[in-house]
Amino acid sequence: MARLLLVEDDAPLGRGMRAALEDAGHAVDWARTGEEALLACRSEAYGVILLDLGLPDIAGLAVLRELRDKNRLVPVIVITAQDRITQRVAGLDAGADDYLVKPLDIDELAARVRAQLRRRDGRGSDLLVARDVALDLGGRTVRLRDRPVALTAKEFRIAALLMRRAGRFVSKAELEAALYDQDQYIESNTVEVAISALRRKLDKDFIVTARGLGYMVAK
Amino acid sequence: MKGAIGSSLTGALYVRTLLLVAVTGMLMAGVLFAIVRADINQRADQQLITATHVLHLLMREEFTAEDPKSRTNHDTPYRRLLSEEDLSAFRASAAWRQFAVFHFGIPAVRPTRSDVEKGVAATPGFRTFDVGDARWRSYGLAVPEQRLLIVVAEPMQVRGGLILRVGEQLAIPIMLLILGSAVLLWLTLRRGLSAVQQLSATLANRSAAELEALHLPAMPSDLAPIIAALNGLLERVRAAIEHEQAFADQAAHQLRTPLAALKVRAQLLLRRAPPESEEHAALSDLLESVDRGSDTITQMLQLARLDAATLTRERVDLRELAGEVIADRALFAARAGADFSLTAPAVAIASTDPTPLRVALATIIDNAVEHAASGGTIDVEIRSVGGRTALVVRDRGPGMDPERLSGAAGRDGDSRPGGGLGLAIARRAVTVLGGELLLENRDDGPGLRATIFLPD
User: Where is the Response regulatory domain (chain A) (predicted)?
Assistant: First the structure.
């Protein structure tokens, strides 16, 4: 599908990840040091870069900053053994697009790579990506694992709001308010009906519910 | 400067310095008073001498008016030594004085007061004597050529009054001087020690996480050793915390990287293994063990971080915090068949450290999800229990053996099957926070109720 750069100094993990990514249909270049990674980026335009922060030669965040200086657009997924919130913030501040903590799940890894590829292909902020769903605000289309899905206007509005706020709960009142300017009158179960339709058309657990909090699309 | 004046540095310095000023002031006043008194006595004595000379001058007229021949006749006293005018003039000039004139040793003029007459002696020079309760001082001027002895006496009280007046005049300026010094001293000390207050305010305003060296260029050089010692301590504490964090980070990297390789390989093999095969089952077991191990590493790192944690305080929106913790787990819980509900007042703000609170709530909720094998709702509630803010998590798991409830949240881990270090971490996090964790079995059917009480 795309050419990826994997930057990982640990040989067994690097081989395993390369095998997993190739299994998902990608071509993978594997750099074992920060120096190698920066060199590889000079000659190749990668779809996604997977960067381990614990490199032997250059600090991972320094590699990330240098990559960002050269190429503003290439998506970078940081892979690290550190899960402290301050480190996560530092990684995202340095320009990472996503953050995965070891040990990672290969299905999760493949999904995150797909999401980054979709985002790169989309037109900037018009494309919302969460899990296996890509929603194009401009073209008003929704794709699940690259297959188009037909949604009603209400369902589209709700999906767009939930995906824009992915990872956080959105209350039912907020969802109703988002529908108001379209219809003057909303039935008390309009939101529930749309949510169950979205669950049926997309994945069952694409939208999770919690009483007292509302609805959420998990990141 | 709160508290008793004596217990504060400013107060103690002030009291001591003020005492010194007061004692010095009093001593100076005493010395001044003694000098003035000696001076007054000396002058008064001088005046007594002058008075005898004046009397003698007044008498000389009478002597020269006599027949010159009679000058040789020293054996007979004069009938009149002083005219009546002279006498009354002299008495009027100093009404408090008494005098006597002896001619040939015989009193020629007597004092007007008989009690004084008794005390006056016909001796030359100074003499002090008592008249009733009062002390008197006299001076006798001997004029041998004329066989005269002139004695002038005056009560000492006259001098005492004078001395007292001088004392009174001295007292008011000295009191004002001491009072003025007291005010000035206090202001000077406060000003001088304001640097100490500034230092303490700077330190008090720091959070536990702010461990960089103090930089206070305006401080007086006397405080430099204290600031240097504080900076040394801050540096050592910061280094110790950094070392501990670096160690935990290093341990995380060293432990998680081989586990990650193991998990990737096992997952790839599992994909290729035919379903229902022995190989498939073995790989599933292997993956479960890897996941269990990595969960334990995560928990141990959390515990290590909590031990090295420095507490801060900020305004925390508990509703938002609980919402975020639930959001992070909602998908995982949904896949495990459990769902969440949050009951909270519209506004739930607490002043606390959000990091340990988040860890405590997250581990309790993770524990609840883990034990919600049969599904059911995990209720999270924020409410006031006995005036204290509490976060309550109720699950529909199997609950706990009542005998083990008390020990369950100790360091030995969860006694529920499948439990890791979760509840131990929760208890540690709540302890770090200064709160209290209460574990009970639900009274409305099976399940565990965990209550985090926030500190007041």
Answer: 3-117
Bigger pLDDT: B150 or B76?
Answer: B150
Residue A4 φ then ψ, to 5°:
-115, 150
Domain-embedded: residue B181: no
Same domain for B278 and B377: no
For the stretch A182-193, pLDDT in tens is 556 677 788 999
**Contacts with B272 from chain A: Cβ below 8 Å:** none
Query: From the CB of residue B257, how many other CB atoms can be counted at a distance below 10 Å?
Result: 22
Q: B290, B307, B324: which is the final residue of a domain?
A: B307
Give the domain-ending residue among B291, B307, B323: B307
Number of domains forming the structure of chain B: 3
| Cβ–Cβ gap B258/A85 under 8 Å | no
Tell whether B36 and B62 lie within a shared domain: yes
Nearest to B364 by CA among B390, B346, B388: B390
Residues B254, B356, single domain; the answer is no
Instruction: Give domain status of residue B177, yes or no.
Output: no
Could you list the beta-strand ranges (E) of chain A.
3-7, 27-31, 48-52, 76-80, 98-101, 127-130, 133-136, 141-144, 147-149, 207-211, 214-217
Smallest CA–CA distance, residue A100 to chain B, in Å, is 11
Specify whether the CB–CB gap between B103 and B144 falls below 8 A: no
- Is B14 in the same domain as B154? yes
Place of tokens 């001796």: B123
Minimal C-alpha gap between A204 and chain B (Å): 10
From B294, B327, B334, residue closest to A169, measured CB to CB: B327
Amino acid (one-letter) located at B2: K
**Quick count: other Cβ atoms within 10 Å of Cβ A146?**
10
Comparison of pLDDT for B409 and B56, the residue scoring more: B56
Chain B residue with minimal CA distance to A19?
B268
Look over chain B and give the mean of its residue pLDDT values, rounded to a whole number: 83
Structure tokens at B230: 């504080």
Which positions in chain B touch A171 (Cβ < 8 Å)? none
Of all residues in chain A, the one with the smallest CA distance to B253 is: A81
Residue among A13, A101, A209 with most chain B CBs within 10 A, to mutate = A13
Are the CB atoms for A109 and A17 separated by under 8 Å?
yes
Full set of structural domains in chain A with CATH:
3-121 (3.40.50.2300), 126-217 (1.10.10.10)
Task: Output b/e per residue, A116-138; b: 16+ Cβ within 10 A.
Answer: bbbbbebeeeebbbbbbbbbbbe
Residues B15 and B136 in one domain: yes
Helix or strand holding residue B11 (H, E): helix B9-65
Do B317 and B352 sit in the same domain of this protein? Answer: yes
pLDDT band at residue B412 under the 50/70/90 scheme? very low
Give the model's pLDDT for residue A17: 95
Residue B87 belongs to domain spanning: 7-165
User: Taking CB atoms and an 8 Å cutoff, what residues of chain B touch A83?
Assistant: 252, 298, 301
Residue B15 lies in a domain: yes
Is the CB of A86 inside 8 Å of chain B's CB atoms?
Answer: no
Indicate the pLDDT class of residue A209, thresholds 50, 70 and 90.
Answer: very high
Q: What is the pLDDT of residue B410?
A: 45
Statement to judge: residues B117 and B223 lie in one domain: no
- Looking at the structure, tell me whether residues B161 and B14 fall in a common domain: yes
* Type of residue numbered B121: A
